Amino acid sequence: MGNAQSPPTDPRFLSSSRAFTQKELQHLSSLFDSLATQSQTNAKYISPSVFQTYFKLHGPVGERLFDLVTQERKDQRLTFEDLVVAKATYEKGTKDEIEEFMFRLVDVSGDNFVGRSDLESVMIAIFNDILCINDSEVGSSSHKDIVNIFLNAANFSVHDEKCTEEAMSFDDFRSWCAHLPTVRKLLGGLLLPPDSGRPGTQIPNLLIPKDIDTNIVLLKKEYAWHIGGALSQHELEDWKLLYHSFVNGLSFNTFLGNISNHEGPTVLIIKDKDGYIYGGYGSQKWERHAEFYGDMKCYLFQLNPKASIFRPTGANNNLQWCAVNFSSEEIPNGIGFGGRVNHLGLFISANFDQGHTFSCSTFGSPCLSKTSRIIPEVIECWGVTQGAPVQGKNDGVKGTVLERFKEDRHMLNMVGLANSSE
Questions:
Q1: Residue 153 per-residue DSSP state
Q2: N or C: which end of the chain has fewer CB within 10 A?
Protein backbone atom coordinates (compact mmCIF):
# COMPACT_ATOMS: atom_id res chain seq x y z
CA MET A 1 0.00 0.00 0.00
CA GLY A 2 2.91 2.27 -0.65
CA ASN A 3 0.95 4.20 -3.23
CA ALA A 4 -1.02 5.99 -0.53
CA GLN A 5 2.22 7.10 1.15
CA SER A 6 4.16 8.31 -1.91
CA PRO A 7 4.83 12.06 -2.11
CA PRO A 8 2.00 13.70 -4.05
CA THR A 9 2.98 15.54 -7.20
CA ASP A 10 -0.46 16.98 -7.94
CA PRO A 11 -1.73 19.68 -5.54
CA ARG A 12 -5.28 18.48 -6.24
CA PHE A 13 -4.37 15.21 -4.55
CA LEU A 14 -3.75 16.95 -1.23
CA SER A 15 -7.08 18.77 -1.45
CA SER A 16 -8.95 15.65 -2.56
CA SER A 17 -7.41 13.52 0.19
CA ARG A 18 -9.05 15.72 2.81
CA ALA A 19 -12.46 14.50 1.59
CA PHE A 20 -11.64 11.04 2.98
CA THR A 21 -10.79 9.61 6.37
CA GLN A 22 -7.50 7.77 6.72
CA LYS A 23 -9.38 4.46 6.77
CA GLU A 24 -11.17 5.34 3.53
CA LEU A 25 -7.87 6.24 1.88
CA GLN A 26 -6.49 2.88 2.97
CA HIS A 27 -9.47 1.10 1.43
CA LEU A 28 -8.97 3.03 -1.80
CA SER A 29 -5.29 2.14 -1.70
CA SER A 30 -6.16 -1.53 -1.35
CA LEU A 31 -8.56 -1.25 -4.29
CA PHE A 32 -5.88 0.42 -6.37
CA ASP A 33 -3.26 -2.19 -5.43
CA SER A 34 -5.58 -5.02 -6.45
CA LEU A 35 -6.35 -3.52 -9.87
CA ALA A 36 -2.77 -2.40 -10.47
CA THR A 37 -1.55 -5.93 -9.72
CA GLN A 38 -3.99 -7.30 -12.29
CA SER A 39 -2.62 -4.75 -14.75
CA GLN A 40 0.86 -6.35 -14.49
CA THR A 41 2.56 -2.98 -14.02
CA ASN A 42 4.48 -3.80 -10.82
CA ALA A 43 1.48 -2.30 -8.97
CA LYS A 44 2.36 1.18 -10.23
CA TYR A 45 -0.75 1.99 -12.23
CA ILE A 46 -4.03 0.57 -13.59
CA SER A 47 -4.27 -0.21 -17.28
CA PRO A 48 -7.30 0.79 -19.42
CA SER A 49 -8.32 -2.83 -20.03
CA VAL A 50 -8.35 -3.76 -16.32
CA PHE A 51 -10.20 -0.54 -15.46
CA GLN A 52 -12.88 -1.16 -18.10
CA THR A 53 -13.24 -4.84 -17.21
CA TYR A 54 -13.64 -4.16 -13.50
CA PHE A 55 -16.20 -1.37 -13.97
CA LYS A 56 -17.87 -3.22 -16.89
CA LEU A 57 -17.68 -0.15 -19.07
CA HIS A 58 -16.39 -0.93 -22.54
CA GLY A 59 -16.41 1.05 -25.74
CA PRO A 60 -16.60 4.86 -25.94
CA VAL A 61 -18.06 5.41 -22.45
CA GLY A 62 -15.44 3.24 -20.72
CA GLU A 63 -12.66 4.88 -22.69
CA ARG A 64 -13.97 8.36 -21.89
CA LEU A 65 -14.30 7.65 -18.17
CA PHE A 66 -10.73 6.31 -18.05
CA ASP A 67 -9.60 9.44 -19.89
CA LEU A 68 -11.30 11.71 -17.33
CA VAL A 69 -10.03 9.78 -14.32
CA THR A 70 -6.47 10.03 -15.67
CA GLN A 71 -6.97 13.78 -16.08
CA GLU A 72 -6.79 13.45 -19.88
CA ARG A 73 -3.04 12.84 -19.92
CA LYS A 74 -3.42 10.23 -22.70
CA ASP A 75 -0.62 8.11 -21.19
CA GLN A 76 -2.88 5.08 -20.54
CA ARG A 77 -1.80 5.01 -16.88
CA LEU A 78 -4.19 5.46 -13.95
CA THR A 79 -2.33 6.29 -10.73
CA PHE A 80 -3.49 6.21 -7.13
CA GLU A 81 -3.55 9.99 -7.12
CA ASP A 82 -5.83 9.93 -10.16
CA LEU A 83 -8.24 7.60 -8.38
CA VAL A 84 -8.45 9.77 -5.26
CA VAL A 85 -8.91 13.01 -7.22
CA ALA A 86 -11.63 11.47 -9.41
CA LYS A 87 -13.49 9.86 -6.51
CA ALA A 88 -13.40 13.09 -4.51
CA THR A 89 -14.76 15.14 -7.41
CA TYR A 90 -17.20 12.68 -8.92
CA GLU A 91 -18.70 11.19 -5.75
CA LYS A 92 -18.03 13.68 -2.93
CA GLY A 93 -18.01 17.00 -4.74
CA THR A 94 -20.72 19.65 -4.87
CA LYS A 95 -23.75 19.16 -7.11
CA ASP A 96 -22.18 21.48 -9.68
CA GLU A 97 -18.84 19.63 -9.60
CA ILE A 98 -20.51 16.24 -10.03
CA GLU A 99 -22.69 17.42 -12.91
CA GLU A 100 -19.73 19.11 -14.59
CA PHE A 101 -17.86 15.77 -14.41
CA MET A 102 -20.90 14.01 -15.87
CA PHE A 103 -21.18 16.60 -18.64
CA ARG A 104 -17.56 16.00 -19.60
CA LEU A 105 -18.20 12.25 -19.41
CA VAL A 106 -20.99 12.27 -21.99
CA ASP A 107 -18.66 14.08 -24.39
CA VAL A 108 -17.47 10.63 -25.45
CA SER A 109 -15.75 11.98 -28.57
CA GLY A 110 -13.66 14.32 -26.40
CA ASP A 111 -14.08 17.27 -28.77
CA ASN A 112 -15.51 19.60 -26.08
CA PHE A 113 -18.98 19.40 -27.61
CA VAL A 114 -21.85 17.16 -26.50
CA GLY A 115 -23.86 16.32 -29.59
CA ARG A 116 -26.67 13.91 -30.30
CA SER A 117 -24.16 11.27 -31.43
CA ASP A 118 -22.42 11.47 -28.03
CA LEU A 119 -25.69 10.90 -26.17
CA GLU A 120 -26.56 8.07 -28.51
CA SER A 121 -23.30 6.30 -27.61
CA VAL A 122 -24.02 6.83 -23.91
CA MET A 123 -27.56 5.45 -24.06
CA ILE A 124 -26.52 2.42 -26.14
CA ALA A 125 -23.81 1.67 -23.57
CA ILE A 126 -26.34 2.00 -20.75
CA PHE A 127 -28.75 -0.52 -22.27
CA ASN A 128 -26.15 -2.95 -23.64
CA ASP A 129 -23.29 -2.90 -21.13
CA ILE A 130 -24.74 -1.61 -17.86
CA LEU A 131 -28.38 -2.72 -17.80
CA CYS A 132 -27.62 -5.70 -20.06
CA ILE A 133 -30.99 -5.57 -21.82
CA ASN A 134 -30.93 -7.44 -25.12
CA ASP A 135 -33.02 -6.41 -28.12
CA SER A 136 -34.44 -9.92 -28.34
CA GLU A 137 -35.31 -10.19 -24.65
CA VAL A 138 -38.97 -10.62 -23.73
CA GLY A 139 -40.33 -7.37 -22.36
CA SER A 140 -37.72 -5.29 -24.18
CA SER A 141 -37.97 -3.06 -27.23
CA SER A 142 -35.78 -2.10 -30.15
CA HIS A 143 -32.80 -0.25 -28.72
CA LYS A 144 -32.71 2.11 -31.67
CA ASP A 145 -36.29 3.22 -31.04
CA ILE A 146 -35.81 3.44 -27.27
CA VAL A 147 -32.56 5.41 -27.58
CA ASN A 148 -34.28 7.95 -29.83
CA ILE A 149 -37.01 8.39 -27.23
CA PHE A 150 -34.45 9.41 -24.63
CA LEU A 151 -32.57 11.63 -27.09
CA ASN A 152 -35.80 13.39 -28.04
CA ALA A 153 -35.95 14.75 -24.48
CA ALA A 154 -32.69 16.64 -25.04
CA ASN A 155 -32.24 20.22 -26.23
CA PHE A 156 -29.23 21.14 -28.36
CA SER A 157 -28.90 24.92 -28.27
CA VAL A 158 -25.21 25.28 -29.17
CA HIS A 159 -24.35 26.04 -32.79
CA ASP A 160 -20.63 26.21 -33.47
CA GLU A 161 -18.78 25.94 -36.76
CA LYS A 162 -16.19 23.76 -35.04
CA CYS A 163 -18.85 21.12 -34.33
CA THR A 164 -20.39 19.04 -37.10
CA GLU A 165 -23.75 18.83 -35.29
CA GLU A 166 -25.85 20.85 -32.86
CA ALA A 167 -24.57 20.47 -29.31
CA MET A 168 -25.74 20.72 -25.73
CA SER A 169 -24.94 23.54 -23.37
CA PHE A 170 -24.33 22.70 -19.72
CA ASP A 171 -27.80 24.05 -18.91
CA ASP A 172 -29.26 21.82 -21.65
CA PHE A 173 -27.56 18.84 -20.04
CA ARG A 174 -28.84 19.66 -16.55
CA SER A 175 -32.37 20.02 -17.89
CA TRP A 176 -32.06 16.66 -19.68
CA CYS A 177 -30.94 15.01 -16.44
CA ALA A 178 -33.79 16.64 -14.51
CA HIS A 179 -36.34 15.06 -16.85
CA LEU A 180 -34.50 11.72 -16.86
CA PRO A 181 -33.65 11.13 -13.18
CA THR A 182 -32.68 7.48 -13.74
CA VAL A 183 -30.08 8.52 -16.31
CA ARG A 184 -28.81 11.14 -13.88
CA LYS A 185 -28.52 8.59 -11.06
CA LEU A 186 -26.68 6.10 -13.26
CA LEU A 187 -24.24 8.60 -14.75
CA GLY A 188 -23.43 9.82 -11.25
CA GLY A 189 -22.24 6.43 -9.98
CA LEU A 190 -20.13 4.79 -12.68
CA LEU A 191 -17.04 4.60 -10.45
CA LEU A 192 -18.93 2.31 -8.10
CA PRO A 193 -18.44 -1.43 -8.73
CA PRO A 194 -21.21 -2.75 -10.99
CA ASP A 195 -22.02 -5.87 -8.93
CA SER A 196 -22.98 -4.06 -5.75
CA GLY A 197 -25.97 -1.90 -6.57
CA ARG A 198 -25.03 1.13 -8.61
CA PRO A 199 -27.70 3.84 -8.33
CA GLY A 200 -29.92 3.94 -11.37
CA THR A 201 -29.40 0.32 -12.42
CA GLN A 202 -32.40 -1.37 -10.82
CA ILE A 203 -35.25 -2.43 -13.10
CA PRO A 204 -38.56 -3.49 -11.50
CA ASN A 205 -39.53 -7.13 -11.99
CA LEU A 206 -42.59 -6.97 -14.25
CA LEU A 207 -45.15 -9.58 -13.21
CA ILE A 208 -47.48 -10.36 -16.10
CA PRO A 209 -50.23 -13.01 -15.87
CA LYS A 210 -49.35 -16.07 -17.95
CA ASP A 211 -52.49 -15.78 -20.06
CA ILE A 212 -51.51 -12.32 -21.35
CA ASP A 213 -49.41 -12.00 -24.50
CA THR A 214 -46.37 -9.88 -23.58
CA ASN A 215 -46.43 -8.31 -27.04
CA ILE A 216 -49.51 -6.27 -26.13
CA VAL A 217 -47.98 -4.88 -22.93
CA LEU A 218 -47.02 -1.21 -23.10
CA LEU A 219 -44.61 -1.22 -20.18
CA LYS A 220 -41.29 -2.46 -21.55
CA LYS A 221 -38.24 -2.89 -19.33
CA GLU A 222 -36.62 0.31 -20.56
CA TYR A 223 -39.81 2.23 -19.81
CA ALA A 224 -40.01 0.76 -16.30
CA TRP A 225 -36.36 1.70 -15.72
CA HIS A 226 -37.15 5.27 -16.78
CA ILE A 227 -40.35 5.61 -14.72
CA GLY A 228 -38.59 4.23 -11.64
CA GLY A 229 -36.07 7.05 -11.67
CA ALA A 230 -38.26 9.17 -9.41
CA LEU A 231 -38.81 6.36 -6.89
CA SER A 232 -36.88 4.98 -3.96
CA GLN A 233 -35.14 1.63 -4.18
CA HIS A 234 -37.76 -0.25 -2.16
CA GLU A 235 -40.41 0.70 -4.77
CA LEU A 236 -38.43 -0.92 -7.59
CA GLU A 237 -38.92 -4.57 -6.74
CA ASP A 238 -42.11 -6.13 -8.18
CA TRP A 239 -44.65 -4.36 -10.39
CA LYS A 240 -47.75 -6.44 -11.11
CA LEU A 241 -50.04 -5.87 -14.08
CA LEU A 242 -53.49 -5.29 -12.53
CA TYR A 243 -55.46 -4.10 -15.55
CA HIS A 244 -55.04 -4.13 -19.33
CA SER A 245 -57.78 -2.78 -21.56
CA PHE A 246 -57.11 -5.29 -24.38
CA VAL A 247 -57.78 -8.11 -21.94
CA ASN A 248 -60.28 -6.53 -19.54
CA GLY A 249 -62.02 -4.09 -21.88
CA LEU A 250 -62.17 -0.28 -21.76
CA SER A 251 -64.29 -0.21 -18.61
CA PHE A 252 -63.89 2.13 -15.65
CA ASN A 253 -65.80 -0.22 -13.35
CA THR A 254 -63.62 -3.18 -14.34
CA PHE A 255 -60.55 -1.02 -13.86
CA LEU A 256 -61.58 -0.06 -10.32
CA GLY A 257 -62.57 -3.64 -9.54
CA ASN A 258 -59.23 -5.06 -10.70
CA ILE A 259 -57.16 -2.63 -8.66
CA SER A 260 -59.41 -2.52 -5.57
CA ASN A 261 -57.37 -5.08 -3.64
CA HIS A 262 -54.06 -3.32 -4.24
CA GLU A 263 -53.28 -0.99 -1.35
CA GLY A 264 -50.02 0.44 -2.67
CA PRO A 265 -49.05 2.93 -5.38
CA THR A 266 -49.87 2.33 -9.03
CA VAL A 267 -48.44 3.20 -12.43
CA LEU A 268 -51.09 4.23 -14.97
CA ILE A 269 -50.05 4.09 -18.64
CA ILE A 270 -52.05 5.26 -21.66
CA LYS A 271 -51.46 4.87 -25.37
CA ASP A 272 -53.74 7.10 -27.44
CA LYS A 273 -54.94 7.00 -31.04
CA ASP A 274 -52.02 9.20 -32.13
CA GLY A 275 -49.53 6.64 -30.81
CA TYR A 276 -48.31 8.77 -27.90
CA ILE A 277 -47.60 6.91 -24.65
CA TYR A 278 -47.66 8.62 -21.25
CA GLY A 279 -49.12 8.29 -17.78
CA GLY A 280 -48.78 8.98 -14.11
CA TYR A 281 -47.58 7.52 -10.84
CA GLY A 282 -50.36 7.46 -8.26
CA SER A 283 -48.95 7.33 -4.75
CA GLN A 284 -52.39 6.78 -3.20
CA LYS A 285 -55.02 4.13 -3.84
CA TRP A 286 -57.55 4.95 -6.56
CA GLU A 287 -60.82 5.53 -4.68
CA ARG A 288 -63.84 7.82 -4.84
CA HIS A 289 -63.23 11.49 -3.96
CA ALA A 290 -65.10 14.70 -4.71
CA GLU A 291 -61.87 16.69 -4.89
CA PHE A 292 -58.15 16.29 -5.52
CA TYR A 293 -56.15 14.12 -3.12
CA GLY A 294 -52.77 12.34 -3.09
CA ASP A 295 -49.34 13.52 -1.97
CA MET A 296 -46.14 14.96 -3.38
CA LYS A 297 -44.88 11.54 -4.48
CA CYS A 298 -47.21 11.63 -7.49
CA TYR A 299 -45.78 12.54 -10.89
CA LEU A 300 -46.51 12.49 -14.61
CA PHE A 301 -44.32 10.96 -17.29
CA GLN A 302 -43.92 10.61 -21.04
CA LEU A 303 -42.70 7.42 -22.73
CA ASN A 304 -43.17 7.97 -26.48
CA PRO A 305 -42.18 9.78 -28.67
CA LYS A 306 -39.93 11.13 -25.93
CA ALA A 307 -39.15 10.16 -22.37
CA SER A 308 -39.56 12.68 -19.54
CA ILE A 309 -40.65 12.79 -15.91
CA PHE A 310 -42.48 15.72 -14.32
CA ARG A 311 -42.49 15.85 -10.54
CA PRO A 312 -44.61 18.17 -8.34
CA THR A 313 -43.51 21.80 -8.34
CA GLY A 314 -45.30 22.69 -5.10
CA ALA A 315 -47.53 25.18 -6.93
CA ASN A 316 -50.65 23.43 -5.59
CA ASN A 317 -51.88 20.16 -4.09
CA ASN A 318 -54.02 19.09 -7.05
CA LEU A 319 -52.30 15.74 -7.43
CA GLN A 320 -54.64 12.76 -7.95
CA TRP A 321 -58.25 12.78 -9.15
CA CYS A 322 -60.73 9.91 -8.92
CA ALA A 323 -64.43 10.76 -9.20
CA VAL A 324 -67.03 8.00 -9.48
CA ASN A 325 -70.81 8.30 -9.98
CA PHE A 326 -71.11 12.02 -9.28
CA SER A 327 -74.02 13.79 -10.99
CA SER A 328 -72.62 17.32 -10.81
CA GLU A 329 -70.84 18.72 -13.88
CA GLU A 330 -68.46 20.42 -11.48
CA ILE A 331 -67.14 16.98 -10.50
CA PRO A 332 -66.23 15.19 -13.76
CA ASN A 333 -66.22 11.43 -13.37
CA GLY A 334 -62.93 9.79 -14.23
CA ILE A 335 -59.29 9.62 -13.13
CA GLY A 336 -56.37 11.95 -13.59
CA PHE A 337 -53.50 14.02 -12.27
CA GLY A 338 -52.73 17.69 -11.71
CA GLY A 339 -54.07 20.97 -13.01
CA ARG A 340 -57.60 21.95 -12.15
CA VAL A 341 -61.09 20.54 -12.66
CA ASN A 342 -61.88 20.12 -16.37
CA HIS A 343 -58.32 21.20 -17.19
CA LEU A 344 -56.09 18.46 -15.77
CA GLY A 345 -52.53 17.59 -16.61
CA LEU A 346 -53.94 14.17 -17.52
CA PHE A 347 -57.56 13.01 -17.38
CA ILE A 348 -59.47 9.96 -18.64
CA SER A 349 -63.27 10.08 -18.47
CA ALA A 350 -65.25 7.41 -16.66
CA ASN A 351 -66.30 5.95 -20.00
CA PHE A 352 -62.61 5.38 -20.79
CA ASP A 353 -63.36 6.61 -24.32
CA GLN A 354 -61.91 10.12 -24.16
CA GLY A 355 -59.85 12.45 -22.03
CA HIS A 356 -57.53 15.42 -22.10
CA THR A 357 -54.02 16.56 -21.23
CA PHE A 358 -53.09 20.19 -20.66
CA SER A 359 -49.94 21.89 -19.46
CA CYS A 360 -50.23 22.30 -15.70
CA SER A 361 -48.35 24.09 -12.95
CA THR A 362 -48.85 21.16 -10.54
CA PHE A 363 -46.08 19.21 -12.27
CA GLY A 364 -44.64 21.84 -14.61
CA SER A 365 -45.67 19.47 -17.39
CA PRO A 366 -46.63 20.24 -20.99
CA CYS A 367 -49.46 18.68 -22.96
CA LEU A 368 -48.41 15.02 -22.96
CA SER A 369 -49.84 14.13 -26.37
CA LYS A 370 -50.09 15.53 -29.89
CA THR A 371 -53.25 17.44 -28.99
CA SER A 372 -54.94 18.30 -25.71
CA ARG A 373 -57.96 16.12 -26.50
CA ILE A 374 -57.11 12.42 -26.41
CA ILE A 375 -58.78 9.14 -27.33
CA PRO A 376 -57.33 6.20 -25.37
CA GLU A 377 -56.41 3.12 -27.35
CA VAL A 378 -54.75 1.10 -24.57
CA ILE A 379 -54.84 1.62 -20.80
CA GLU A 380 -52.67 -0.30 -18.34
CA CYS A 381 -52.36 -0.15 -14.59
CA TRP A 382 -49.52 -1.70 -12.60
CA GLY A 383 -49.44 -2.25 -8.87
CA VAL A 384 -46.19 -1.28 -7.16
CA THR A 385 -45.13 -3.69 -4.43
CA GLN A 386 -43.23 -1.77 -1.78
CA GLY A 387 -40.39 -3.58 -0.06
CA ALA A 388 -38.84 -2.62 3.25
CA PRO A 389 -37.07 0.77 3.05
CA VAL A 390 -33.29 0.63 3.16
CA GLN A 391 -32.19 2.14 6.45
CA GLY A 392 -29.56 4.86 6.62
CA LYS A 393 -29.31 5.74 2.95
CA ASN A 394 -31.26 7.03 -0.01
CA ASP A 395 -30.58 5.11 -3.20
CA GLY A 396 -26.88 5.03 -2.46
CA VAL A 397 -26.53 8.80 -2.77
CA LYS A 398 -26.95 9.99 0.80
CA GLY A 399 -25.86 8.46 4.08
CA THR A 400 -22.47 8.15 5.67
CA VAL A 401 -19.25 8.17 3.71
CA LEU A 402 -18.62 4.53 4.60
CA GLU A 403 -22.05 3.62 3.28
CA ARG A 404 -21.30 5.40 0.03
CA PHE A 405 -18.16 3.36 -0.34
CA LYS A 406 -19.54 0.01 0.77
CA GLU A 407 -19.27 -1.13 -2.84
CA ASP A 408 -15.49 -0.80 -2.64
CA ARG A 409 -15.50 -2.72 0.62
CA HIS A 410 -17.55 -5.47 -1.01
CA MET A 411 -14.93 -5.85 -3.72
CA LEU A 412 -12.13 -5.81 -1.16
CA ASN A 413 -13.85 -8.57 0.78
CA MET A 414 -13.91 -10.58 -2.43
CA VAL A 415 -10.15 -10.25 -2.82
CA GLY A 416 -9.42 -10.60 0.91
CA LEU A 417 -8.15 -7.07 1.45
CA ALA A 418 -11.02 -5.32 3.23
CA ASN A 419 -9.67 -5.85 6.72
CA SER A 420 -6.06 -5.08 5.91
CA SER A 421 -6.36 -1.55 7.22
CA GLU A 422 -8.58 -2.14 10.24
A1: T
A2: C
Instruction: Please check whether residue 127 is in contact with residue 143, taking contact to mean a CB–CB distance below 8 angstroms.
Output: yes
Query: How many Å apart are CA 365 and CA 361, to the nearest integer?
Result: 7
Hey, how many other C-beta atoms are within 10 angstroms of the C-beta on 422?
7
What mean pLDDT, rounded, does the chain reach? Answer: 88
Estimate the crossing angle of helix 48-55 against helix 59-69, to 10 degrees: 120
Q: How far apart are CA 52 and CA 333, in angstroms?
A: 55
Short-list 195, 189, 184, 264, CA closest to 226: 184
CA distance 79 to 67: 12
Question: Would you say 207 and 383 are in contact if contact means Cβ atoms under 8 Å apart?
Answer: no
pTM recorded for the entire structure: 0.87
Q: Tell me: pLDDT of 66 over 60.
A: yes
- Classified as helix, coil or strand, 293 is strand
N-terminal to C-terminal alpha carbon distance within the chain: 14
Q: Is residue 20 a contact partner of residue 29, using CB atoms and an 8 Å limit?
A: no
Q: What residue spans of 152-235 are helical by DSSP H?
A: 170-179, 181-187, 221-227
Query: What string of DSSP letters covers 343-408?
Result: EEEEEEETTSS-EE---BTTTTB--SSSSSEE-EEEEEEEEEEP-PPPTT-STTTSS-HHHHTHHH
Each residue of 281-308: pLDDT tens digit?
Answer: 999 999 999 999 999 999 999 999 999 9
